[in-house]
Amino acid sequence: MNAGSQQARAVRMLLTLALCGMSSMTLAGLLSDSDTKATPKEENALALPDAPKTENLLRYTVGAAGAMSFAIDAKSVIVGDDQIVRFSSVISSASGALNISYEGIRCKTGERKLFATGRPDGSWNTIPDAEWRLISGASANSYQAALMKDFFCDGESVAGKASTIVDRVRRKKPLRQTF
pTM (2 decimals)? Predict the structure, then answer.
């Protein structure tokens, strides 16, 4: 496959994501109102990254996710002075449907926040009044729990600088060992 074909495929995948994103996230339980709401805390102002690019995606494993593929955009990972790990997430199905989101994980409280979802043109749709929600590992596709436990957090502390976290995901070297 030549570079032009790969780029065209990536653009088609991004378009599919935007069309399927919100309904897929709802079906996956990612936007459930039943999540436990946590007390708001101070956090840095939202600064959205560039849209994820295929060449920057780092894949990681989420339990028995089966037909789903999970990745983060290495260029988007930041650790703020507010101790929140922010990242772009790209989730794809076997049929090629994509969900792109910009999220944050707060290690100290085990919470997640959905800041924005990706649009077909590469821009972001911010989530008004987004709230912090406790991360649950009960779902088979709890990618936030996998990121928190395996790569981002060492207990209640952020597990290093952004470059350290990215390297850990790139090398597929989780913090915890599974047996």
Answer: 0.74
